[in-house]
Design brief:
The complex is a heterodimer of chains A (about 375) and B (about 325). Chain A has about 375 residues and is mainly alpha-helical. Chain A is about 75% helix and about 0% strand. The mean pLDDT of chain A is about 85. In chain B, a hairpin with a 2-residue loop joins β9 and β10.
């Protein structure tokens, strides 16, 4: 096991280096550079643009820039952003990464929580009208053109009903004199979510020994409600409640959009995987043993069918940055996706490279985690 | 008193092309502790009969008529809830593909304990010792029960599956091709072991196989199936010594014997009938060397031609091999 992880880490380092190299030269291959956006600006003469190029180091040889950059990255220095000058790239990412991570984590978890049981259910009731209806709905969500879904959500819930804002991270009017920076409130919000998630898992664990399903479920839900209540009370007592709520309110539609799309995928994958497992002989055996239908479905079929879903879930975490470009643009959610897109458009190389470095790291680590999870879940796989 | 009486069991599979007459008017009885065998080609309805006994038929299957009396109760009429209590507790099964009948993500012992705890109110520890007992019985080291199926060899898996079938001490065990996937030496050893255990605990056993030689070794009586019918049923010696149905005779002459003169193995012309539209009259008539107009027009009934020797044929043959 340790050997495997060690070997994989070495692989990851090599892959990462190659990735970095390819990405760097791809950017260099693009025509023009950061200064080209000032060409049409009469107040910045060619001489000033040349001076800017020199200052930004764009006149050095490509190899010189490459060696410099790689050395800097491996010493933990991602450089300064051209656009946000003189802010450091890392500083910008530190602010934006949590926003993307929370958006996608919440949506992924919700999609999983709904998609897994529903996929399991319709696979068990295969061939019935309900199965077809839900499958068609799932395909619809899964294949819908993301901007279209976003526009529809915005039109219905923001424009027509007016329940939510059309975009952004917060309502500026409310934050004229904030008691604390939006970033720190957001981090606290994220911490609250993480805490509640842990609490829910612990509640499940603590009530495991209760024999009957009904009181067990009741105890579980009770504990979760208590946790949510305590968190709400904490925010209210701190006086920061309205500010936190403002952020949550802005998060609602983007989370809904990502959830719907991911939900379709999770549900269809679970259904498919279940249908495959149901045909296995050990399911017939389980039925022949006289086990109740639900036990056969949950303990025998779903447990094995879960494996591909876990992989897909873990790997999808790695792609949040790239996947976020469309969603974040549609909802003007200033996360990694939107930051990357902007940086790319104005050729702010260090910023764009910084975003891609995080995508790369996330993807590589997600693959490693998926491999390890697989070994935990499937006894047939041993490293 | 008979443990199991199957009376006129008729079962169809609904398909897009029409009903498949998989099991048609099958009747037989089993006494307590008896071992019988069902033989026939693939697709003749052997497995369908077995699955009907446990009511584990696929969704498109339909029992159209007949009854399955087990200990006086008609299993066809039982509710799903009551049927669940019969499964494994009273009738258990060793499946055709033992290799795949264990769930790969759970320990083998755990899968047996699960069956035990479903039907008997015993503690985890008692269930474990019960599993260990049955492991010893089928010749497996009880230490293996905490291993996963993929860590077992083919023969070990088969033994574990048999231990699982024995776990709740059922009255009847159905063994569907229990040893087909195994090599001959392991096959023989396992069959002997099953038979010893069966005799020791007075369990009834129904063997299902396409290989009449395997069945002959362990079954006291043999039923020969063809195209959803039982065409001949008699004690094992009679079936071998005086087969009466032309199909049984063909089946016998198609497998080699190490005794007697050298002979050319007979081949049966034609193919098994399409059960979507089975032949009129006797289902065997298109392939039968003795077929007459009567065979084409009317279906024969299963009749007793000797004591305990039933044949469904208009022209039962009376020659010894």
């Amino acid at each position: 096991m340790l050997r495997f992880v060690g070997g994989r880490l070495v692989q990851i380092a090599i892959t990462f280096f190659l990735f970095l190299t390819v990405v760097f030269f791809l950017f260099q291959a693009m025509p023009g550079d950061y200064t080209k956006q000032f060409i049409m600006n009469p107040r910045i003469p060619p001489a000033a643009r040349e001076a800017l190029k020199v200052r930004l180091g764009l006149t050095d040889s490509v190899w010189g820039q490459y060696v410099n950059y790689v050395r800097n990255v491996f010493t933990g220095n991602l450089g300064l952003s051209f656009e946000h000058y003189p802010r450091e790239v890392w500083d910008v990412i530190k602010e934006r990464l949590p926003r993307t991570a929370i958006l996608f984590l919440v949506a992924s978890v919700m999609a999983f929580v709904w998609g897994f049981p529903l996929g399991r259910y319709i696979a068990w009731k295969r061939g019935q009208t309900l199965d077809y209806t839900i499958t068609v709905a799932g395909v619809l969500f899964y294949t819908i053109f993301t901007p279209l879904l976003a526009l529809m959500l915005l039109f219905v819930f923001a424009n027509q009903l007016g329940w939510f804002r059309t975009g952004g991270f917060l309502t500026p009017r409310l934050w004229l004199t904030p008691p604390s920076s939006p970033q720190s409130i957001f981090i606290w919000l994220a911490a609250t979510l993480a805490g509640l998630g842990t609490w829910a898992v612990l509640a499940r664990f603590a009530t495991r020994r209760i024999g009957h399903p009904r009181p067990r479920r009741l105890a579980q839900r009770g504990l979760v409600v208590v946790g949510v209540g305590l968190a709400g009370l904490g925010w209210w007592a701190s006086g920061l409640g309205p500010f936190a709520w403002d952020i949550v309110w802005h998060m609602f539609l983007p989370v809904l959009a990502v959830t719907l799309i991911a939900f379709g995928g999770d549900m269809l994958l679970m259904r498919d995987s279940m249908l495959e497992v149901i045909r296995e002989d050990y399911i017939t055996t389980a039925k022949a043993k006289g086990l109740p239908d639900k036990v056969v479905r949950d303990r025998h079929a779903a447990r094995t069918a879960l494996l591909p879903l876990v992989t897909s879930f873990t790997l999808s975490i790695g792609f949040v940055v790239s996947g976020g470009i469309v969603t974040e643009t549609m909802f003007s959610w200033k996360g990694m996706g939107l930051t990357y897109l902007n940086a790319l458009l104005i050729q702010d190389y260090p910023m764009a490279m910084g975003c891609l470095i995080f995508t790369g790291i996330l993807v590589l680590v997600a693959h490693l985690v998926a491999d390890l999870l697989y070994a935990v879940l499937d006894p047939r796989i041993v490293y | 008193m008979a443990l199991l009486t199957v009376q006129d069991l008729t079962m169809h599979y609904r398909t897009k092309l029409g009903g498949v007459h998989a099991v048609d008017g099958v009747s037989f009885a089993m006494a307590e502790g008896e071992a019988i065998g069902l033989v026939g080609e693939s697709g003749c309805g052997k497995t369908s009969v077995a699955m009907a006994l446990l009511r584990l038929l696929p969704d498109n299957a339909q029992i159209l008529g007949g009854e399955i009396l087990f200990e006086g109760r008609d299993l066809v009429k039982l509710s799903e809830h009551e049927m669940r209590k019969v499964r494994w507790r009273s009738i258990s099964m060793v499946f055709q593909a033992a290799m795949n009948s264990l769930n790969p993500v759970y320990r083998v012992g755990q899968q047996i304990i699960e069956a035990i705890q479903q039907h008997l109110s015993v503690s985890e520890r008692e269930a474990r010792s019960r599993v260990a007992e049955h492991y010893n019985l089928v010749g497996l080291d009880p230490k293996l029960m905490d291993r996963y199926p993929h860590e077992y060899s083919g023969g070990m898996k088969q033994r574990a599956v048999i231990a699982m079938a024995l776990a709740c001490s059922p009255k009847l065990i159905i063994a569907d091709e229990p040893t087909t996937a195994l090599d001959v030496i392991v096959q023989d050893r396992i069959l002997r072991r099953i038979n010893e255990v069966r005799a020791e605990f007075n369990m009834a056993m129904m063997y299902i196989s396409h290989d009449i030689a395997v069945i002959a070794e362990v079954a006291e009586r043999i039923g020969v199936m063809y195209a959803g019918w039982i065409v001949e049923m008699a004690d094992t010696v009679s079936v071998f010594k005086h087969p009466a149905h032309p199909y049984t005779i063909a089946l016998m002459s198609a497998f080699p014997s190490i005794k007697g003169d050298k002979r050319v193995l007979a081949q049966l012309p034609g193919e098994p009938p399409n059960l979507l539209a089975p032949p009129s009259g006797c289902r065997f008539h298109p392939r039968c060397p003795h077929a007459t107009a009567e065979c084409v027009d009317e279906a024969p009934r299963l009749e007793e031609i000797d004591k305990g020797h039933f044949v469904s044929c208009w022209h039962p043959q009376r020659r010894s091999q």
